[in-house]
């Protein structure tokens, strides 16, 4: 009876390894589309999550780090009309009008 249990255990381990390999391949494919800034945020989030919560914390931390460092600001989303730019001061801070909207000008 013991060899049957071991054989069944081996089949389970093989299926688990196949799933891990599939997830790893998908992660590599997704990493190819990430910017360097987002990759750094993902690594920092995974490290912080692993320290705080182990393997589950690493996965959650990586997701939060990737989302927080995603380079999707208003200019990348296409909210400005063509030929328009945000107004910034010498330090690079955006300027806002009285109602809190960012100022724009022609580029």
| Estimated structural class | mainly alpha
Helix/strand order = HHEE
How are the strands of the biggest sheet laid out side by side? 1-2
* Average pLDDT taken over every residue: 74
Number of strands: 2
User: What shape does the CA trace take?
Assistant: elongated
Helix content: 55-70%
**Beta-strand fraction estimate:** 5-15%
Indicate the low-confidence ranges by residue numbers: none
Number of helical segments with 4 or more residues:
2
Structure, briefly:
This protein is mainly alpha-helical. The chain contains two helices and two strands; from the N terminus they run H-H-E-E.
Could you explain the architecture of this structure?
By secondary structure, the chain is mostly helical. It folds into three domains: 1-33; 35-71, no CATH class; 77-107, no CATH class. Helix content is 60%, strand content 6%. The longest helix has 33 residues, at 36-68.
Helix/strand layout:
Blueprint: H1 2-32, H2 36-68, E1 84-86, E2 104-106
Antiparallel strand pairs: 1-2
């Amino acid at each position: 009876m013991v060899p049957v249990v071991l054989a069944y255990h081996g089949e389970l381990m093989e299926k688990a390894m196949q799933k891990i390999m599939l997830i790893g391949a998908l992660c590599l494919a997704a990493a190819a589309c990430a910017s360097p800034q987002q990759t750094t945020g993902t690594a920092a989030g995974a490290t912080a999550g692993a320290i705080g919560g182990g393997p589950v914390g690493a996965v959650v931390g990586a997701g939060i780090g990737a989302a927080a460092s995603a380079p999707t600001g208003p200019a990348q989303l296409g909210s400005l009309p063509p030929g328009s730019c945000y107004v910034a001061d010498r330090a690079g801070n955006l300027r806002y009008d009285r109602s809190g909207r960012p100022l724009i000008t022609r580029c």
